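Lecture 7 notes: from sequence to structure.
We start with the chain below.
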Amino acid sequence: MSKITMKTPLVEMDGDEMTRVIWKDIKDILLIPYIDLRTEYYDLGLENRNATDDKVTSDSAFATKKYGVAVKCATITPNADRVKEYNLKEMWKSPNGTIRAILDGTVFRTPILVNGITPFIPTWTKPITVARHAYGDVYKNTEMQVKNGSKCELLVTDKNGTQTKKTIFEFDGTDGIIQGLHNKDNSIKSFAKSCFNYALETKQDLWFATKDTISKQYDHHFKDIFAEVFETEYKEQFEKAGIEYFYTLIDDAVARVVRSNGGFIWALKNYDGDVMSDMIATAYGSLAMMTSVLVSPDGTYEFEAAHGTVQRHYYKHLKGEETSTNSVATIFAWSGALKKRGELDNIPELSDFAEKLEKATIKTIENGTMTGDLYLLSTLPNKKKVNTREFLIAVNDTLKEMM
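Predicted structure tokens for the same chain:
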């Protein structure tokens, strides 16, 4: 069989630790034998980010804006321990945070369902996609510890020098802490448009939830912007598509989500989305069984796995010990990027291959061959635990049968 030809390259962002090992194996075993793979490569491994003063991260994001589609391996966000371990010049920022800020994107995370792994909430028969705003709030906060007797004020100076001041709290008899959050109207509007566009693209209802009854300025502003964007730009399109936009308070949304059958997009502010996406992933089965795609309002896409670099398995790998690491979300990052590249470049055979790769991955698991994490969860009677590389080879055997 001749290899599928690509017109435009994908932006390829390599990463760290065990996912970097898996990344190469996926390419060698599942992609290069079938595709004349074209990528513009950026090494976002922590050593190279340190060597380039993290310029490689922003370069990869600007390349994504140029080419429209990227696929990213999981990367380390360094803490104090990592600074010592890798002898870093400084504690570099999260690559995902840098990329999200440049692309102005929204993160959509969706669980991958397979037979034999039952969600902890049995009514969830369809996936729930969490749409997480990727800017601001606690992730760009300013915070301080304050001493007894301190008076904390919120001060805003406008462009003419006029000051508006509000008292936050007067600490009397105790020390304490304060935190300042912000967000931007243009980022919230981009978030809203990305959510509405993704709902139309996937033909799913969109839910949005904040706590506007308590946060009457901050959270209410999110609610108002979503409502304005929907009414002026998307209401007719939603009606034609037969889908719904629904707003409710976040505590009510949680109750509704638990009682639901799934099959919708749940849009959330940055922190809420961070927490709820992990809850959704775990309740469906595994964070390693969750796709993640960053979507910009201008139609730029960056696909990645929802999980981290699998540090514990990597240290075992370095010792020569066998690992059984789940590669499904990383496979789906590649397949998602290839599908989108095929769609944008009008190469149906590329999109078709990516669809087959996803089906082969799921079929392999449903036939009973799986990594250790799924082996512990699966209720299939004739299941078999395999190591990291054996699973990829098994997927390839299934894929060959389907081609």
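Points to note: The first strand starts at residue 4 and ends at 5. The chain has a mean pLDDT of 95.
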